[in-house]
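Loading example: each entry is read as two labelled lines plus one structure line.
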Amino acid sequence: MGDIWDGFVEAIKLIITFDPYVMKITLFTLYVCGVATLIGMLVGIPLGSVLALYRFRGRQLLVTLVNAGMGLAPVVVGLFVFLILKRRGPLGFLNWLFTPKAIVVAELILAVPLIAGITMAALQNENPKIRMQARSLGAGEARSVLTLLRETRLSLMAAVIAGFGGIISEVGAAMIVGGNLLKGGEPYTRTLTTATVLEIGKGNATQAIALGIILLAITILLVYIMTLIQQGGLMSQPVKVARNLFTRRGGEASA
Amino acid sequence: MTPFLFIDGLRHSYDDRQVLNVDGLEVHEGEILAVVGPNGSGKSTLLRMVNLLEEPTQGDITYWDGSRLSEMNRKQRRELSRQMAMIFQEPLLFKRTVRANIAYGLKIRRMDGEERDKRVDKMLERLNLEEFAERDALTLSGGEAQKVTLGRAMVLRPRLLLLDEPLASLDVPTRKMLRRDISRLVRDMGVTAIYVTHDYHEVLEVADRLAVLLDGRLHQVGKPNQVFGRPSTEEVAEFLGAENLLEGEVKENREGMAVIEVEGVAVEALSDIPAGARAKLLIHPEEVTLMSDAGEAGTARNRLPGRVTEVNVMGALVKVGLDCGFPLVAYITRASQEEMDIDKGRRVTAVFKATSIHVMPFTQAGDGAA
């Protein structure tokens, strides 16, 4: 119990003093996971949509890959990306190994199947007639799919939360392809999870617990914000305010 | 007059199973054409093809602007489909406010915001939906929701409105109300409509013409009273729930006055079917009069003594089952039931005119009289 309490106190201390080392690692983690989640959305949502709504050759194979990808071991993905990006690997010329880019690539491979898989399931659950209704009201093919996606926005948000949660908490891939490096004494490819592993290795339990608590706190906070957006508590308020402002102004203009 | 819409030799199959086979069907401008048929008869498929949502295996549709389905490019299809709107059995509302739902199609057509709001407001007002405008559409009751879908379609001022069983999932009072809203709005706006339903009662008041679709084939098209009074085939008569669909053999035919023997009883009817041939007869139950005394005067040619086997009160009317040598059903008023003291076992005479019998040629298809 003592260790956890000490870790907790240490975590509070590190946070309120804006400890530069911890701040750097935290911002780096958010950056890497944010970029990977964003690209993951841009790839995963369209991919999931296509798999859910269209029939074509090779679809079954892709669906299997996506479903299998939802349970990929991060260590294996890390190893795979390592082999591809290492100096003698097929993409070795990019010199991405042990850079933030390598971590983004690995996290992306982990996030895309999660986002695509949940998107696919959500769309297949939705009434297919919604799309037909949209088309019969004049929507083109693309517009009808967008309408359907909008109908499933709760599940899409869940897909994004799952993708983000999956990669911010993983350590294996980031460790293998990032290397948990410092550059000029400053954290370079060190994330909250790899840093935690390092501190444990050094026998520095208090510091590890502090980092773990920060990681947990950040995850909970971000997921909470996304949940608010999902449930309409956060976004709808500004929208309502803006609408009121707009209509009032419109009223004055016409008066 | 060139038809508003012409369906020509339309065939459609799913996995080698033919679900639609319509040789020719015209829709006139400004009319409400009801397409009736049991579930699975191909009605919805027909609508989806007209609405360009599904491609027929074979055949063509000619639209009001002269364009033909078989010759249209993508752009023409898009333009044409924007002149139509469809309402389905389920409301299929989007997760937005009622107002946003009604504005959906106008937004797609990139209508300018002010004009759009005006049109939407007017539609909300016409349908008495103003108080629901800002409500989440998914919180509405079935009837209200279907009313919103009506508004969402009609706000587009379509040339052709397609209705696919729009009342099927509603309760009876709501159905009545919405039917009134539909017919009022469609008539007021001069929109042509194709109304598909398995329940023909639903469209009797609103349809100008009735098309009966059975097993993917068009059996009869005509004014409702014509279709009901003179169904073209026994399948149509059966689908329309005809009582007294009988089978017999023409014994003699003198200048169109035929004597037809039904289970040993001779019935006189107007028909061109020659002696020796078999025929189907439809005796409308509301045209059968019951008399307690066979001797009463009258011009009706058919007077059959019989015994009452069944009495069922159906609202204002009473359905009386008789055994006249063959089973016969008559509808009488409750007043006359009481006056004549009609009850099971009572002996009466069933009286009906030769002109109130509809005779159809015998087809092997539906063997066995109803």
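The first strand of chain B starts at residue 5 and ends at 14.
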